[in-house]
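Problem: given the chain below (200 residues), write out its structure.
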Amino acid sequence: MFTGIVEELGEVTAVETLGDASRFRLRGPVVTQGAKHGDSIAVNGVCLTVVEHEGDEFTADVMAETLKRSSLGALTVGSRVNLERPMVADGRFGGHIVQGHVDGTGTIVERTPSENWEIVRISLPAELARYVVEKGSITVDGVSLTVVDAGADHFTVSLIPTTLALTTLGHKQPGDPVNLEVDVIAKYVERLLGTREVTR
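Solution.
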């Protein structure tokens, strides 16, 4: 499990196509400390498994399903990525419950800068809109954020200077895709209430 608090801005150093999958090599001096085969690392909000680790780089395989449901397929050599290791049992819970299981992708629609922060509007797939509420939590490219405004086909978030400087969200431009993971609690509640209706 992750919390959506990005540890570092990493970089894609190699991309290898493996038929219906891809293998990425990524540089991240912080997240590779103590890393070993089989460990999990979130890359732009997608939970990936470490295949190899050498120095400050690691490789991870990405299957077709993940490439289809996320924006990882758009990554190229030199792309910057948000990296986070899983939360340890005695760690500080800084964000919200993030599984690293992307629900879909959105697109940066508009950026509105102000003196000390920036409002970003992001398109939202229709099937995810019901899980996004004002002042609720959402994960965008692995970053835990609070929803400012929720519409039928979009939502907005407010980005502080730290988020702008230390994550990919400071560099994304209108038209760029982003990975979205909605609050898993909302999905569980929906499923439980739906089951209750069926059994009545």
